[in-house]
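quick one before i forget lol
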Amino acid sequence: MFLPLPTPVPGSSTVSPGSPGAPSEADLLAFARRAAADAQLVSSLPLDPRGRTWMRLNGPGDSEAWLIGWPPGTGTGWHDHGGSHGAFATAGGVLTEHSLAARMPTDGWRSLELADGIDRERRLSEGEGRAFGAHHVHQVFNASAEQHAVSVHAYYPPLPLMRRYSRSGQVLRLEQVEWPEEWA
């Protein structure tokens, strides 16, 4: 579901020194936390009991941002962000993130065998967030059987693509590349 742009979120962050117009991971996280704390913005997102819903936001410094609703039991699957760095913050409910604690190569492979001890898990409750770099691979999901979760995500540069992966044990396989026009 793609909804029209809402009114801009007040208090867009400033950009990092040394890179005019380019928000840092910290800038994106600060924006995501402020937007997640905006009760009026969060309540404007229609929630669907069966599928994720989303609304595009005006992020800081020409970044791409999204408000996302997660019904119980829904998630993203393993993916990366096409070389963009980013951040997300939970506005309601609890999200679980599984990530890989290693810089993953972005091109030139179809499957990788992952080392032992590479897996990380975080639970992010309302008001909590995290930033990540350009080589981050993760999956995010709402493990609740009863409660929706809502979150704010921001990326810079705007997502050029997303790579989707499958995982079987310690093997990660590239399955699909998605392009921005597919998300509209």
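fyi The radius of gyration is 16 Å.
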